[in-house]
């Protein structure tokens, strides 16, 4: 960075998959006269103090380097305004936050946390909770990294996967919600604490590509209410947030994830969200927020 940027857009050196938000965001920032550039968090030559704002975007390799990423985010927050803030990044990095949201009264998908180094029986976990099918995934993950579906005929494989994961870190075991197959997940996007739009997501497991609706989908009042409750319970409103929801057995929406670090925001399906995000950046550059 030869001269100071208004906004550094954070990616990673080797992007694991395309970022459909990148081009519309860059074009909108340019149209607004906001000086910006894309920089990789894992590029040690970058001088982050040369950016007034540092906006986390497609830094999608961080789960494989969680400690290093968290140290990087803390160092950047000391020389640039990190968005979302470092305290939010630190809290949202480990998906154990779902347990905290539940304690704060937010309806979330039931979650069994298996701590690193624990010898746990997947069969016993399923039996105790009455789950026939379950999802097993690392507590620090993105893009469904090492996330698998365990059905009754592959429980032994699921046990081996659980054991491999707990050798390296904490693991979540959750019931598989059948609603994701028909109704689908609802990825509810929020900008500056307001819901802008949602897309339908298909269930995704390790090695699969993300599939979402080509257009925005209607948001039920209960879905909007739960998404906003989750954001507030996490300390929001935030510049950006995304709550991934799915109906539980009783049809009421449950939070599957609350993404506050680097979520896709689906600008193509929701251009108003892009407009609001750029306006939010402008207010921060002008010292209004």
Question: Any overview of this molecule?
Answer:
This protein has 289 residues and is of the alpha/beta class. The chain has 3 domains: 5-90 and 273-285, Rossmann fold (3-Layer(aba) Sandwich); 97-107 and 182-260, ATP-grasp fold, B domain (D-amino Acid Aminotransferase, Chain A, domain 1, 2-Layer Sandwich); 112-175, ATP-grasp fold, A domain (Dna Ligase, domain 1), CATH 3.30.1490. Helix content is 30%, strand content 23%. The chain has helices at 22-31, 66-77, 86-92, 97-103, 122-129, 155-166, 179-182, 221-233, 271-285, and strands at 5-11, 36-40, 51-56, 81-83, 112-114, 134-138, 148-150, 171-175, 185-191, 194-201, 240-247, 253-259. The strands form 3 sheets. The protein has a 4-stranded parallel beta sheet, with helices on both faces. A 4-stranded antiparallel beta sheet has the order 5-8-6-7, covered by helices on one side. It is globular, with a radius of gyration of 19 Å. The two termini are 25 Å apart.
């Amino acid at each position: 960075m030869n001269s100071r940027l208004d906004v550094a857009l954070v990616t990673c050196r080797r992007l694991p998959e395309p970022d459909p938000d990148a081009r519309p965001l860059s074009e909108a920032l340019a149209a607004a006269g906001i000086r910006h550039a894309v920089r990789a968090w894992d590029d040690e030559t970058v001088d982050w103090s040369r950016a007034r704002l540092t906006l986390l975007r497609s830094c999608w390799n961080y789960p494989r380097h969680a400690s290093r990423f968290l140290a990087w985010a803390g160092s950047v927050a000391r020389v640039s305004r990190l968005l979302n803030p470092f305290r939010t990044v630190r809290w949202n990095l480990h998906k154990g936050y779902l347990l905290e949201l539940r304690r704060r009264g937010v309806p979330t998908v039931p979650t069994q946390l298996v701590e690193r180094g624990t010898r746990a029986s997947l069969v016993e976990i399923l039996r105790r909770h009455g789950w026939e099918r379950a999802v097993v995934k690392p507590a620090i993950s993105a893009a469904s990294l090492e996330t698998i579906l365990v059905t009754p005929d592959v429980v032994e494989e699921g046990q081996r996967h659980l054991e491999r994961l707990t050798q390296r870190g904490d693991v979540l075991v959750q019931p598989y919600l059948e609603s994701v197959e028909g109704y689908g997940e609802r990825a509810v996007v929020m900008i500056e604490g307001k819901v802008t739009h949602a897309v339908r997501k298909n269930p995704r497991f390790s090695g699969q590509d993300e599939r979402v609706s080509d257009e925005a989908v209607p948001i039920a009042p209960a879905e909007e209410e739960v998404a906003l409750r989750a954001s507030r319970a996490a300390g929001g409103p935030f510049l950006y947030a995304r709550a991934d929801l799915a109906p539980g057995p009783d049809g009421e929406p449950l939070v599957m994830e609350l993404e506050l670090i680097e979520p896709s925001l689906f600008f193509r399906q929701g251009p108003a969200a892009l407009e609001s995000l750029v306006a939010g950046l402008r207010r921060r550059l002008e010292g209004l927020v």
